[in-house]
Every structure is written in C-alpha cells, then in structure tokens.
C-alpha cells in the first residue's frame, strides 16, 4: 500500500513537471536555450568486437547512466581478457614509426572507462596479440581507426552542464548565505558578543576551508561523477564509509530544506503579525507557509536543473542588492524610531559594550555555534551536483574556495555589533530626562533608557528581534526580499542536492532495498523519486516549526561528512598509492587530519549525545555494508593502506627469528582447481583458518605449445580466487604451468610464500588409482613426497575410501553447488531406482556419485560426537599431535575427543602410558584416552598378507623364478618393478604397515577421523610401487585417514 501511494506521488510530480516546463520555458528561458544540438554524422571504423562481461563480479541491478561512477572493466587476468571477452583479429597499420605495427602510440582514449561521457573508449592491442601472433594485413585506415576504437555511444543533445561560476560559486554562495545571514546572525553576535562572534565565524571558516582543501585534492585526483560528498568519500575510503555517510549526508540535506523553509516562513509570519493577518497562530502559520513553500520549490526542482539554475541567478541578484542595502543602512543617520529600537549607527561605546559575551536562556558558546554552523555548510552545494559540471576538477576547488572567502568576509562585515544595542523597548518615550541617571546600556549615551528590559522581555535589540537587519537597512522591503532570496535559494540548493546524492548512492546498489530510487527521468536523468522522498522528509521537519531546534540536528550530520572528507584526503595521502596524484597541490595530509579531528571535537562539544547518535548510526550502516559486501571495487585508499600494512608486517616478521611457540601450519594444498577436491580443501581450511596460511595449488600440465595452457591459467586465477571468497574459504589460489606434476609441485615447494609467510606443510590427496596408473605417474607422485621431505616440509596425505576428485560431477552439473547437486542427485537416484529396469548401470553410477559427493562434503558439516584417533607412532616434532588438537578447537569438530595411541613394549605398558600422560599434560593438550599398543610387532594374519601380496603382484619382477639373463632383461625393461631382494630387505617394514592396518581396523573403525604417523621411504632404496603399497595397505578400509609426518623439528613446547 505504501509503495502504491509513493508511486502515485511520483506520478503526480512527474505530471506537474510536464505541465510546468513549457510555462517556465516561456517565462524564464531564452528561446534558443531549449534547442537541441544538431546531430552530426560520425565516421567510425570498427576494428574489433568487444564485449565486456565481468563474470562473477556483475552487479545485476546496477543501472548505467551518464552519471555512473567509473566502471573499470579491464580484465587483470594476465592476458588482458576478461572471462567472456572476445576480440577479433586486429589489422596492422602504418604508424609514425614508418612500418606496419599493431602497437599504438599513447592516447587518452585508451584510458577511458567503458561509460565515458567525455569521449569514447579505445582498446589497445593485448599483450597476447603482440606476442603470440602476427598476420600482416594491408589496410588503409584513418587515424581514428589506428586507436582501435569501439563504437561510441550515440551522442545525445540537450545536456545541461555548468561552469565554475554558475555551477559552483553561485550555488555555494547562495547556500552559505542562507537563513542565518538575515535572521540569526544578529542574535549570534548578541549572545556571543563581537569577540566570540568573530571566533564562531572564523572557526566555521577554518572547518570549511580545511574541508574544501581536502575536497579539492580528492576531486582533482581523477574524473568526478555525480554524488557529491558521497562520491568523494566512497571512491576514496571505499563503499563501507561512503555508503554509511552517503545516507546520512543525503538525509542532512533533506532536513536542511526544512531549516531554510522554516526560516523563510518565520519572516513571512512576522510580516503577517505586523499587519494583523495571522491565520491561526504563529507556530501553525509557520507550518502552513512552510508546506506551501516547499511544494512550490519542488515544482521548480522537478522542472529540471536548467530552470533551477536560472532561478538561482535571479535570487543571487536580489541577495546581493539586499546585502549592499544593509551596509548602506548602517551609515544613513538613524531615525528616532530606529533609535528607540536600539540602532544608533557606528559608535565605539556600542562595540565596546557588545564585545564581551552575554549568554541568556541557557545558551553557551557551543550551542550558539551549533545554531550558526549550518550557515557554513553550503560548501558542498557545488560538489553535490558534480555530475552536472563541465569540468568538476577545475570548478570545485576554485568556486568553493572563492565562495568561502566572499561569504566569510560578508558574515564578519554584516555583523551589527557596532551599531545596535542588545536590548531596546521600541518605545519613543523611553528617553532620559534631565536629572535622571542611566547606566543600563550604551543607549544611555544617546539619550535612551532601556532599563525596563531588565525586568521584562523586550521585543527589540540584537537579543530579541530576529528582523534587526530589516530595521537597520536603508530600505526594509529589500531585506525582506533578501531574506526570502537567501532562504529560498538555500532550500532550493538542498532540495536539489539531497536527491542527487541519494540517487548516486542508490545507483551503486550498496543498499539493495533502495534501488527503487536509482531511476532517473528526462534528458538530465532527474531523480524524481528522490525529490518526492526529500519532500516528505522536509515536510516532516517543517512541522517542528522551530529553527533553533532543527539547526543542531543537521550540524552533526554535516560535521560527520566533513570529518570523513578530511580523513579521506589524509588516508589517501598516508597510503602513498601511486594512483594518488591530485592536480590540486595546496593541501597537507596533516592539515586534513587536523580538520577531521576538529570536526569530531566540535561535534561532541556541540552536543555529545547527538554526536554519539550520529556515529552510532554511521557505525551500524558501516557494519551493514561490510556484512553485505557490495560487489564494487573503486581502488580505495583503504585497500592501499591494507596493502602497505601487509607488506610492512611481512617485512617486520622477516626480521624476527622463528620460535616454536609461534609455529602454525601454513599449507600448500595440491587441490587442483579448488572446487574439485572439496574434502582436501575443507580439512586444510579447518587447520589453517585464523591460524596460518593456506595456498590451494593447481598444476597445468603442458604438452607441446603452452599458449593455450597459459591462457587457461591466467583466466582461472581470478575466477578460482573469487570462488574461494564466495565459499568463505580463507585461502589463496596459485597455479603454475609445467611439463609434469612433480616439477610443478617442486616450483611451489621452492617459491611459494613470502618471508615468514612461507608454507611449511604439504597437503596432498592419496592417489587412489595408483595401481592403474603408469610407472611415470607413480614415480612423479612419490617424487613429490620425496621433494617435500628434502625441503623439510611437514607432509599430510588424506585418504577417503570413496575418493577425493569430483571434477567429473562438477563438469556434468555446471556451476551447481555441492549441496544443490547432492539434493538433485538424490532425486535422480530415486527416479532411476524406481524407474524401468533397463537402466541398472545409470542407477549404479548415480549411487557411486552420491556416495562420492557425500564423502567429499562431509567436512563442510558439523561433525557429530565421536573421536579423533591419533596413532602417534614416531616422534616427528609433534605435528602429528598438533594438527588434530587444532581440529578440536574448531566449531565443527568441538564434539570430537582425542584418543592417543602409542606403541609400547609388553613389559612396560603402564610406564609408557604415564610418560605420555605427563607429556600431554605439559603440552596442555586435552585427551579422552591414551592407549598403549604392545602387539605392533606381531606378524600379520595370512589373510592380510594375501591382500598385500595380491596388491603388489602386478609390480613384482619375480627374478628368483627366472633365469639370470631373463631376470636382467626384465630389470632393464622395468626398473621400477619390485625385486625379490627389495621385498625381502623391507619385509619387516612391510609387515608393520599390514599389522597397523589390522590394529586400526580393531580400534579405530568407528572414529570420525584417524591420524597416523606416515612411514618414510628412503630415496633410491624403496621402490615407488612398494611405498605406494605401504600407504595403501596402511589406510585400507578405514574412515577418513590422515597420514602425517612432521619435519622432525619441534612444533610443540612446554616452556612458557
């Protein structure tokens, strides 16, 4: 229902706009101004087809327009292409170098964004085009074609763009010369005195000037689009800060409309009161006049920016005449009537009396400052319509600084502390008669006694009459016109600013629920819906009908905005990013920081609870945006500072020696594409999350030309990292192209990491198909384990009976997530099993895939109550014990208890158990049970031996049953096979693995996870296939099992 009413209001406003525009054109607009520019034909040579698709980073409800923020759609995938981008072959051209070349000379069009308004974007040749291929094509092309241009968007005429005077200077002066100039400035100087009154004005000027310097630096550091303060802050500090302050700033501008309109209404009601024409009562009349006024202002605003700008010029002329009228009035000899109201022209005695403060009615310096400060908040009036400026970078600094200077001088000059006393009765008879003493005020020096004001409330003087300037001026009606002009122009500027800022915020889709307000109308993309919302907010605050109540509300909001603008400049300067190159040089990072702190201090001294409320709202909005993580990347200074901090911290770590207490698992995980082995990734993530580094690694095997593999590698870098991020896996993705799996992993083992952020543990899945694989594949796999031991890595091998690789499942089901695929697979299985009996193979395959997916995703769920059985058979430095302990600290594993199994001798089982209990107690590792296994050395059963013998049978030489020549020939042809001598040499170790599997079957069959000390094979001694058989028989028919071998350096300590 509410949305229906809102849409109806929008339709009514749009209709009013349609109705008013022709009328305003006839009355205010030069007939030539409405003519559209004649479209001229443009000759474009299209050299390539270019489609920008941002893959997983598309914001589906982002609405493109001319005021959109920069959209950086160049892919950083190494080859210059985004994932779905296609580029046709580019012909070579004759360049300034005198020969055919694909290379292009530097040109500004190469650096434009896709939606650039100032010119169309050209696309330079990619590195792959220059490096990988060359086809000579003789083509006569124009210079424009040599740029490799894409078709520009169709030009549209009729856009209204303002220069620095009309768009910034005039707008800022009108907004600063607001309601306070004519109806509150005299009251401010009456309360604070001339001395502190000047301090109030100067303090406001300091705050706004420092903010303007910071704003100038930010807005000259690149193209500025629409959105004003929101745009500047969001593109500098990021969407979190920009989104929170943008909403507050837009709301503050909407409330400012109410403040200025109430100031206008006060003046109108005073006139009605003087003429005995009050409609209801004073307060209700302010509400009535205010509501009527804001409706008229809304009509002017929705008619378009051009009409609004022309109205501003008209109001400025009136305002300048009114200000001049005040100065003239102060030197015209005062009449008796004006004397009775406290005006005596310039006199030293009056300025002396009014120099010191005289706070009344509970006012203080900061409460008076809070009421005056909104008069200085118009400095962002030009920035708020930055999208409608011809050259925002040049216009904003020049226009805003000049506006601050002119208005500051005006405020100090117009102050009437030297001409008007604080209290006056307005009674012509309150004169001093002969023989009568008078010392109430400086008026006594001029024959007037206003001592009656000490006992009763007077109606005139600086403290009592808000219309002092009308009385002082040379011609009173001009001041009334100036008051109307100042209040209406400021209200009009705020009424335009608030929707523009709000529309820019909604277009970025930071708050998805507000996307309704992003839509614009007409040639200037006017935010009609934003106008209606601003109108509703303004009317709500107009109903308060108290100017002194409304003003402090927006003071804190504006100060918070100014604080963040200053902090944005400081932060960008502090980050020292190469991209921070503002054209405006007259700023200082420490001055900006001072400005930010000053704004914060002033907020709290004005009203501490309002400041806390402002920052509380901002914090809540910041948290909301942070949690929602809007899919935008504006290259903020926050990213730059994060990078600097990371580099500096890494360098600091590099200068610190490693200590056992600070050991943490930092893993290289050979997952391939991260999504293809989820169980391995999930377990690694459980071990390293908030503890250490996790790098998921993929090796692209290159056969012949590596071009295709390199393109696939570069393309996958960003997409796989995005997949990790979207699945909340705190890990990095890395990839290499190599001629073999072992050489690729060798690259990771040697070069992965940075400083102390260097991996120390290798995680790899068990090669389940080792018996079907070729000898080279087995040699490569075992070689990886040997390399890990050589480089002193801890080594972890995960085995799950169903397997780890689900790439074929993902390939068959596209981008389905594991949970969605699991549900779909259940339905498929049900259909196949209940369907015709002609599909037994498909049903069986569905069952296999179901079991595989369930096993692969088991570590994504909370693990139920059970045990993690740790078979700590060999002291490897403690890694075999530390990793399961880390798992028990995780939320998913917290219901699992540790059971520790150790090997012991039959005669000292109790002693071995007590020693282990003592050691675990010193390590402060909780356990549920310690078991001493004393029959490890018992010979395995014949059934287990038979299983092992069958396992290795295809890989044995059996040279003992053959003649010597035949045996030598077999050994030469298959050197990787297991000889009888080797089998005999390692018989005890073989029996140990078989026996351990029997013990594991007996004691740990029900465990949620089994951890076993991993056997080591001596290089050039144990055949690769025999070693694989050891690992296979050791972990056969068991729950998920981790084989762990540390690098035999202590990772546990009991010292403090």
Structural features, described:
- The protein is mainly α.
- It is built from 35 helices and twelve strands.
- Strands 5-4-3-6-7-12-11-8-9-10 form a ten-stranded mixed sheet, sandwiched between helices.
- Helix 30 links the parallel strand 9 and strand 10 (929-933).
- The protein is elongated and about 145 Å long.
- The two termini are 67 Å apart.
- Residues 16-89, 135-158 and 815-841 have low confidence and may be disordered.
Mean pLDDT: 79
Q: Structural class, judged by helices and strands?
A: mainly alpha
End-to-end CA span: 67 Å
- Count of helical segments? 35
Keywords:
1056 residues; mainly alpha; ten-stranded mixed beta sheet; 35 helices; 12 strands; 6% strand; AA-permease/SLC12A_dom; sodium; transport; phosphoprotein; transmembrane
């Amino acid at each position: 229902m509410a949305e229906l009413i809102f849409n109806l209001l929008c339709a009514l406003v749009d209709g009013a706009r349609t109705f008013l525009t022709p009328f305003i054109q006839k009355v205010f607009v030069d007939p030539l101004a409405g003519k559209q520019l004649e479209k001229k034909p443009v000759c474009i040579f299209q050299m390539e087809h270019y489609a920008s698709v941002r893959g997983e980073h598309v914001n589906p409800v982002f609405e493109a327009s001319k005021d959109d923020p920069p959209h950086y759609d160049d892919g950083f995938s190494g080859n210059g292409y985004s994932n779905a981008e296609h580029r046709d072959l580019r012909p070579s051209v004759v360049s300034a170098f005198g020969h055919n070349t694909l290379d292009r000379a530097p040109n500004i069009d190469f650096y434009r964004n896709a939606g650039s308004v100032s010119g169309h974007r050209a696309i330079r040749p990619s590195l792959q085009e220059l490096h990988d291929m060359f086809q000579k094509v003789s083509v006569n092309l124009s210079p424009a074609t040599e740029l490799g241009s894409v078709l520009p968007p169709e030009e549209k005429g009729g856009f209204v763009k303002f220069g620095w005077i009309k768009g910034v200077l005039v707008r800022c002066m009108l907004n600063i010369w607001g309601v306070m100039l004519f109806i509150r400035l005299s009251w401010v100087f009456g309360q604070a005195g001339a001395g502190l009154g000047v301090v109030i004005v100067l303090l406001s000027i300091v705050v706004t000037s420092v903010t303007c310097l910071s704003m100038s630096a930010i807005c000259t550091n690149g193209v500025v689009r629409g959105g004003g303060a929101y745009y500047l802050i969001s593109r500098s500090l990021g969407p979190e800060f920009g989104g929170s302050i943008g909403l507050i700033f837009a709301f503050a501008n909407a409330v400012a409309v109410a403040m200025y309109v109430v100031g206008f209404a006060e003046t109108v009601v005073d006139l009605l009161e003087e003429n005995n024409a009050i409609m209801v009562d004073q307060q209700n009349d302010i509400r009535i006049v205010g509501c009527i006024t804001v409706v008229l202002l809304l009509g002017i605003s929705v008619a378009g920016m051009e009409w609004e700008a022309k109205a501003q010029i008209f109001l400025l002329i009136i305002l300048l005449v009114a200000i001049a009228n005040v100065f003239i009035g102060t030197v015209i000899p005062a009449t008796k009537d004006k004397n009775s109201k406290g005006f005596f022209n310039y006199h030293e005695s009056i300025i002396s009396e009014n120099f010191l403060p005289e706070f009344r009615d509970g006012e203080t310096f900061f409460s008076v400052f809070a009421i005056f400060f909104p008069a200085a908040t118009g400095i962002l009036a030009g920035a708020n319509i930055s999208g409608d400026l011809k050259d925002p970078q040049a216009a904003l600094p020049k226009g805003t600084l000049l506006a601050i200077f002119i208005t500051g001088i005006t405020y100090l000059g117009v102050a009437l502390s030297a001409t008007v006393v604080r209290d006056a009765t307005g009674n012509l008879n309150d004169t001093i008669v002969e023989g009568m003493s008078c010392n109430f005020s400086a008026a006594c020096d001029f024959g007037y006694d206003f001592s009656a004001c000490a006992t009763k409330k007077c109606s005139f003087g600086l403290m009592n009459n808000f219309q002092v300037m009308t009385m002082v001026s040379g011609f009173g009606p001009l001041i009334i016109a100036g008051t109307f002009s100042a209040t209406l122009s400021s209200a009009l500027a705020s009424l335009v600013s608030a929707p523009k800022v709000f529309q820019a915020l909604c277009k970025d889709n930071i708050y998805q629920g507000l996307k309704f307000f992003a839509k614009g109308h007409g040639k200037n993309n006017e935010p009609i819906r934003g106008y209606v919302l601003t109108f509703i907010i303004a009317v709500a605050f107009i109903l308060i009908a108290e100017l002194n109540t409304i003003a402090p509300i927006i003071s804190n909001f504006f100060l918070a905005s100014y604080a963040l603008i200053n902090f944005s400049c400081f932060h960008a300067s502090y980050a020292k990013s190469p991209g921070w190159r503002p054209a405006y040089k007259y700023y200082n990072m420490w001055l900006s920081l001072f400005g930010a702190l000053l704004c914060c201090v002033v907020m709290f001294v004005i009203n501490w609870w309002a400041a806390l409320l402002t920052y509380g709202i901002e914090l809540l909005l910041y948290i909301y945006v942070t949690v929602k993580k809007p899919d935008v990347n504006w290259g903020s200074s926050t990213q730059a500072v994060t990078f600097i901090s990371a580099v500096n911290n890494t360098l600091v770590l590099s200068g610190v020696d490693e200590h056992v207490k600070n050991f943490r698992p930092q893993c290289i995980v050979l997952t391939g594409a991260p999504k293809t082995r989820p169980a391995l990734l999930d377990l690694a993530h459980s071990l390293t999350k908030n503890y250490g580094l996790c790098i998921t690694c993929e090796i692209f095997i290159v056969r012949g030309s590596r071009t295709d593999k390199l393109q696939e590698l570069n393309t996958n870098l960003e997409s796989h990292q995005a997949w990790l991020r979207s699945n909340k896996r705190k890990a990095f993705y890395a990839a290499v192209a190599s001629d073999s799996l072992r050489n690729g992993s060798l690259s990771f083992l040697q070069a992965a990491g940075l400083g102390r952020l260097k991996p120390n543990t290798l995680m790899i899945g068990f090669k389940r198909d080792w018996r079907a694989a070729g000898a080279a594949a087995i040699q490569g796999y075992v070689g990886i384990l040997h390399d890990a031991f050589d480089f002193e890595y801890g080594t972890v091998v995960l085995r799950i009976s169903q397997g780890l690789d689900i790439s074929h499942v993902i390939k068959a089901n596209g981008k389905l997530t594991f949970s969605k695929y699991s549900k779909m697979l259940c339905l498929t299985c049900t259909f196949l099993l209940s369907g015709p009996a002609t599909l037994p193979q498909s049903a069986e395959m569905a069952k296999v895939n179901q079991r595989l997916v369930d096993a692969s995703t088991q570590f994504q769920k909370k693990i139920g109550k059970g045990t993690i059985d740790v078979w700590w058979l060999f002291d490897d430095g403690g890694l075999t014990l530390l990793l399961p302990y880390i798992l028990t600290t995780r939320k998913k594993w917290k219901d699992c208890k540790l059971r520790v199994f150790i090997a012991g001798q039959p005669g000292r089982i109790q002693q071995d158990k007590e020693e282990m209990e003592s050691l675990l107690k010193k390590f402060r590792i909780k356990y549920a049970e310690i078991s001493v296994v004393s029959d490890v050395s018992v010979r395995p059963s014949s059934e287990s031996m038979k299983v092992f013998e069958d396992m290795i049978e295809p890989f044995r030489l059996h040279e003992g049953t053959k003649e010597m020549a035949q045996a030598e020939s077999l050994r030469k042809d298959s050197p990787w096979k297991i000889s009888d001598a080797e089998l005999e040499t390692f018989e005890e170790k073989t029996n140990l693995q078989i026996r351990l599997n029997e013990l594991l079957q007996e004691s740990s069959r029900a465990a949620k996870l089994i951890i076993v000390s991993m056997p080591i094979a001596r290089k050039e001694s144990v055949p690769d296939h025999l070693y694989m058989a050891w690992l296979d028989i050791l972990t056969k028919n068991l729950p998920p099992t981790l084989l762990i071998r540390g690098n035999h350096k202590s990772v546990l300590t009991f010292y403090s």
